[in-house]
Every structure is written in structure tokens, then in C-alpha cells.
Amino acid sequence: MNDVKKEYADALFSLAVESGCEKQFSEVMGNISGVFTEFPEYVDFLMSPSVSADERCELIENAFGDTLPEYILSFLQLLCKNRRIDQFENFREEYDRLLRESEKSSIAQVTSAVPLTDAQKKKLSDKLEAVTGRSVTLVCNVDRSIIGGLTVKFDDTLLDGSLKRRLHDVKSVMASDVPEQSGCRIEGNNS
Q: What is the Cα Rg of the chain in Å?
């Protein structure tokens, strides 16, 4: 799937670059994604084996024809013909990755146990930008189960500085240092 996702997204991104519409295509695809999320039955219908490829393309034309750039309409029709319209979100995500790559920007998914202050967000963003040499947009989430610290996922990197992970690491070290005897004797001064 990754090769297919890359192939389709690369082709659309190349057309967008030729047209100078990279950001516009991203926005339009985001809107289409919203429609598909709101009406999943429409995607199911477009995947139905009982609907011919020509009918699927006509349905896409009727639904989106007047509102989409020609290349994106053709892209949707190609996905319908090849029975890949249900994978649209994967193609959109890959397209957006290519866009960020071309803009030298990254999105960092930050998860913390408590909400970060604006100052903490700024400091983290500045640090990530210095390390990556890219502009970084933070998407912050709160997950109390990590107990403390935070995790940061960007590009293909995961930085896990959560207290939950640290405790797990300590537990693993302690478990590996315990002697393999069934009994444990503690000697000491009982005074």
C-alpha cells in the first residue's frame, strides 16, 4: 500500500506544482476528506461492485464537478475506476507530507500529561526547529495516562520522555537484575 500511496500522491503533487496550486489542492482535499468522513456510506457506495466504473466516475462528476479543480476531479475519478476511493485519506495524508517536505516544515504531535503553557509550546517549537532545520507546527494533546513528561512524534521520529516510559524502563532493569533464585535472603545487622 505504501508504494501505491506514494505513487498516486506523487503524481497529484507533481500536477499541483506544475499548476502552482500545492496549497490549494491540500485545502480542497481536506474538504473532500471532511465530506467522506461525514458520509461514509457514499464511499461504500462508490466501492460497490454493483456500480460500474463509468457510473462511479459520473457520480463523482455530479457530486463535485462544479467545485473542484480539474486535476483533483480527475484524481477522484481515477481512484474510483481503480477501486481505491476508500483509501483517499491515505493519499491525502501522503500529499500533505509531500507539501510539508517541499515547504521544509513538519507537524509535531505532542502528548503531555497536563496542558502545556504557551511559553512551553514556544520553547519546544523553537527547540524542534533548531534540531530539524524546519518550521514546526505543534499539535498538542493531553493524555493523563503518561503520568508526566511528554512524547513528541514528528516525521519518522518518536521522542518518548514520558514518566510512564521511564517507569517501564526502571521496571525492566530491576527485573533483569533480580537473581534467578526462588528464594531471596537478606542479611543485615538486627540491632
A: 25
Q: List, in sequence order, every residue forming a beta bridge with 139; answer none if it has no partner.
A: 109
SS3 1: coil
Query: How many whole angstroms separate alpha carbon 144 and alpha carbon 150?
Result: 10
Which residues, at least 6 apart from 154, have a Cβ–Cβ distance to it below 8 Å? 106, 107, 108, 109, 128, 132, 136
Q: What's the residue count for the chain?
A: 191
CA atoms within 13 A on the CB side of 122: 3
How does residue 184 score in pLDDT terms, banded at 50, 70 and 90? very low
- Find out whether 113 and 149 touch, Cβ atoms under 8 Å: yes
φ, ψ (nearest 5 deg) of residue 158 = -125, 120
**pTM listed for this prediction:** 0.64
Residue 10: strand, helix, or coil? helix
